[in-house]
Design brief:
By secondary structure, the protein is of the alpha/beta class. It contains 15 helices and 8 strands. It has a 6-stranded parallel beta sheet, sandwiched between helices. A two-stranded antiparallel sheet has the order 6-7. The relative contact order is 0.11. One of its GO terms (biological process) is antibiotic biosynthetic process.
Amino acid sequence: MWQFHNPVNVIFGQGAITALTEQINGRSFALVTYDHPYFASLAVGIRESHSGCRVVLNQVSENPDISDMATICAAFSPYAAEVEVLVALGGGSVIDATKALAVAKTEPNHIRAVLTQGEKIIGTPLPIIAVPTTTGTGSEVTSWATIWDTSAGRKYSLVHPHLYPEVAICDPQLTYQLPVSLTIQTGLDALSHALESLWNKHRNPLSTQYAKRAIRLILKVLPKLKCEPTDSLLREQMMTASLLAGLAFSNTKTSIAHNISYAITIETGLAHGIACSFTLPAIVRSFANDDSDIADSLRSLFGTDLTDAACELEGWLAALGVATEPQCYGYSEERWQILVNDALSGERGKNFAGNSTTLLQSF
């Protein structure tokens, strides 16, 4: 028996941002975004078009940190009593920070307690409309957020069914100005989301189909986008792939590649999309002698010889400028084995449905 659940209303297409008016539906709202000229311009347009915008909150940083919440909550506090819905305009960091704000509202200590002390009384989060501007996070269709505590060297997951956005407005036009480097990083994050949902203990037939469709699209489209970043069709296809990957892992969560990546990002500052993707070939290789449904799914994507497939995936990543050897990121063999062992015992690492011993031998 299996089940698949995702309550997010998805509106997708060129110019889909125009649906924001209908989705706000006359409610007062706070717009959460980045402090960046491009997003400031978008925010001005939204504010001028919607009299219900009470405040623009642009205090979000990349990889939102628990220490940021005091600043965001303070900026939100004067308008909190009026705001009925939060609009998240940006990448995964914005959407994740918006989810944290939806819980914290004016009390940063509350979200800190939820994250650090296992506080289960989240209350009733504010509703969220997610408008992604990158093609990788999937946060617009999940019920969780990643919040970091860099001072303590930790990463937290905020999880609650009420944190699914009401609606995800996916407009490829909003990604046209995404730099090539971020296009690659976020695209690799989406690839990891999709593959992680395949070798996951919580996989199901529907999540697998979403994942496989996403993987095929990303493998085809992302190298082309590197060379043709202004191509509108490629941008639309990449946003489709990111959405499909998000739908896949919205029901499985991530697995070992992500759990490995958290320590790497904390220790080295490596961008998340790179940190969670350079291990993917080794994980594929670990299924080379496997006869499970996971290996069957991988063979349907990469061919019958998964050892050769892993080599081809390494070459595909190399063409995008991504090295796949842990040593390239400063890890000795001994330190790497310790890191992977620790990751296997982590919350996401426990979702890995493959053989841990074989995985360790695959690097």
